[in-house]
């Protein structure tokens, strides 16, 4: 049972990762992302997820620096994730991209580094680079984002170190049941991006009924559904009241019937690109 905002899941390598964090996809660099990161940390969040392609790593780093100064929390209490972009895949280019991200963030190490998308012919070499970074201690855990089962099998076949995380689009209309089963069987933790389907769930009648029953918002119900399914989540917001609301998930529990009803909403419907058919 996940009882508080800073509860952690133990990854396959023994590293502890918060179940709950802040995602900053499409958050503008500069003061907006600085303030978002500070608001999240001020309200108990301990995990921040960014990526090179988001072009806001500098602001995230500044937000972390200011939050540490203002709250007195230690860097070691935070869990910071970034990702290598498609154009930088390959062994040497991934190593170089990692150092660039670290510099922009102003950090000495990352807690998690991910391959952002499974670009065919390149991601195995990038995985070898992530293994090197892991062995040197520059990153505490390594994994991927948007990898399907067949991509994961190719990595695993060539891997010296097993992936610890797969971050994928996951929400009630795309519940990724088969992929989650495969990840569990291989001790790879699943993490959801777009856990709220980028706001497209807020008119759903089933979710509205469940939310009214618990006197919670639809967002809170969906985020609670993720947690009770054993999914790490990183909802995005730039507004402090929404950051607070998204984190208010630990004073209620969805029933088995609630969970079944939400599970039944699956339509295999994506809001993001299909990892088997993307062009960027």
UniProtKB/TrEMBL annotation:
Keywords from the named record: NADP, Oxidoreductase
Any Pfam family the entry gives: Aldo_ket_red
NADP-dependent oxidoreductase domain mapped to chain residues: 33-266
PROSITE patterns per UniProt: ALDOKETO_REDUCTASE_1 (PS00798), ALDOKETO_REDUCTASE_2 (PS00062), ALDOKETO_REDUCTASE_3 (PS00063)
Family named by the database record: Belongs to the aldo/keto reductase family.
Protein name per Swiss-Prot or TrEMBL: Aldo/keto reductase
SUPFAM superfamilies linked: NAD(P)-linked oxidoreductase (SSF51430)
Lineage: Bacteria, Bacillati, Bacillota, Bacilli, Bacillales
Domain of life according to the entry: Bacteria
InterPro entries in the cross-refs: AKR, AKR5G, Aldo/ket_reductase_CS, NAD(P)_OxRdtase_dom_sf, NADP_OxRdtase_dom
Listed CDD domains: AKR_AKR5G1-3
Organism, scientific name: Metabacillus herbersteinensis
């Amino acid at each position: 049972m996940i009882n508080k905002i800073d509860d952690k899941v133990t990854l396959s390598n023994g590293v502890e990762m918060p179940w709950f964090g802040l995602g900053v996809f499409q958050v503008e660099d500069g003061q907006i992302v600085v303030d978002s990161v500070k608001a999240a940390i001020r309200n108990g969040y301990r995990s921040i997820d960014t990526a090179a392609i988001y072009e806001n790593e500098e602001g995230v780093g500044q937000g972390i620096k200011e939050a540490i100064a203002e709250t007195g929390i230690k860097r070691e209490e935070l869990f910071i994730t970034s990702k290598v972009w498609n154009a930088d895949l390959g062994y040497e280019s991934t190593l170089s991209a990692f150092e660039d991200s670290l510099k922009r963030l102003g950090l000495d190490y990352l807690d998690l580094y991910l391959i952002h998308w499974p670009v065919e012919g390149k991601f195995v070499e990038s995985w070898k680079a992530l293994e090197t970074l892991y062995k040197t201690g520059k990153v505490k855990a390594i994994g991927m984002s948007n990898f399907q089962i067949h991509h994961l099998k190719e990595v695993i076949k060539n891997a010296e170190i097993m992936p610890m995380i797969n971050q994928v689009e996951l929400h009630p209309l795309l519940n990724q049941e088969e992929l989650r089963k495969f990840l569990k069987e291989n001790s790879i933790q699943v993490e959801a991006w777009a856990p709220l389907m980028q706001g497209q769930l807020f008119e759903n009648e089933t979710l509205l009924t469940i939310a009214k029953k618990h006197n919670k918002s639809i967002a809170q119900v969906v985020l609670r559904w993720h947690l009770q399914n054993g999914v790490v989540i990183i909802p995005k917001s730039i507004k402090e009241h929404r950051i607070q609301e998204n984190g208010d998930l630990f004073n209620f529990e969805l029933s088995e019937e609630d969970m079944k009803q939400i599970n039944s909403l699956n339509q295999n419907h994506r809001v993001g690109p299909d990892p088997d058919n993307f062009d960027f």
